[in-house]
Amino acid sequence: MEIAISIITGLMILGALYAIHAKDLLSAVIACGIVGYGLVICFLLLKAPDLAIVQIVVDTITLIIMVAVVLDSSREESFSKLDTEGYISAATAIVMIIVLLYFFVVSIQNLDVLGKSSLRMANYYIEGAAQKTGSANLVTGVVFDFRGYDTMGEAVVLVTAVLGVLTILRLKGKK
Amino acid sequence: MKIKRQKFFMKGMTIIVKKTTQLIAGMIFMYGIYVIVHGHLTPGGGFAGGVIVAGSLILVTLAYGGEFLKLVKEESGTTIVESLATIMVILIATAGFLFGTRIFFNNFLPKGIVGHLVSAGVLPLYNIFVGTEVAASVFIIFLSLIIFKEESPQ
Fold first, then answer.
1. Sign of dihedral through CA atoms B123, B129, B130, B135?
2. Residue A131, C-beta contacts closer than 8 angstroms, at least 6 positions apart
């Protein structure tokens, strides 16, 4: 299973690289789809069907909206030469990559193999969660019962996102 | 070129897409409701089902086209549905204060038998309201984008 996940992750990285370098914006958007759908297969291999359902639906809707945007505007990417601001951004990005890679290496040495041992909190959830919450689906039991605050926060985040979109996109209110 | 594209979005898509949409859209809607209602039994739940419901609505809107500026009424209605669903989630969460121990997100209804459709206390209610809220949110973002495109000066 680890080999399959490694191959899919490699494909996802290739798709992301192609999306950056593609001249045609439509093929760049389609290449972004490789990343999303590869992630779906990874979730299925790691036995997380709840996440896979959400990811496949959200990715499809995002792709549809992006394709509609690209078809409506220009399909060619506008290139511009690097100025001072661009050089500063590139230098910041390289520094960030080095720092993140260092902490990644440090943390990966202290971690167990994925799925080998479970956390103490996770054990508490798994033991008798069906009796405690009455829900056969453990994920729903955790999301709405043990972690109710998180779910309420997610719902409020969606409301805030919609408010932001409406505030930015209303032309009539601006006049 | 610009005018041609405008007409394309107004007229909707070809008759093949329209007929397929007629056959499929209702089934997608029902599948979304199934995923929401069975959220405490099978994989899925409020978030996944809500996005599926919104996807069926987006499919109908994109396939049939029409004058998007007339959709302003639907937009305001969707806003109200979304806000009401969010308020209902918070009200159910605070309703636990009235029954038994004083805990936020208290599961105050009887839990029933594990595996039945009507079980798990208030969890199915949370699923239904969160599903409504997510469907309304995704659909309203899509609606405001297409209305903005029609409204903006060329």
1. positive
2. B114
Q: Do A137 and B107 touch (CB under 8 A)?
A: no
Kindly report, residue by residue over A58-103, the tens digit of the pLDDT.
Answer: 898 888 888 878 887 777 777 667 778 888 988 999 999 999 999 9
Q: Does B144 touch chain A (CB under 8 A)?
A: yes
Distance CA B34, CA A145 (A): 21
Residue A157 touches partner B, C-beta closer than 8 Å: no
Nearest chain A residue (CA) to B86: A155
Sequence-ordered list of residues with C-beta below 8 angstroms from that of A134, at least 6 positions apart, any chain: A141, B40, B107, B111, B112, B114, B119, B120, B121, B123
B58 with A134: Cβ contact below 8 A: no
Closest CA to A44 of A61, A57, A56: A56
- Residues in chain A closer than 8 A to B83 (CB atoms): 159
Q: What is the ipTM of this complex?
A: 0.77
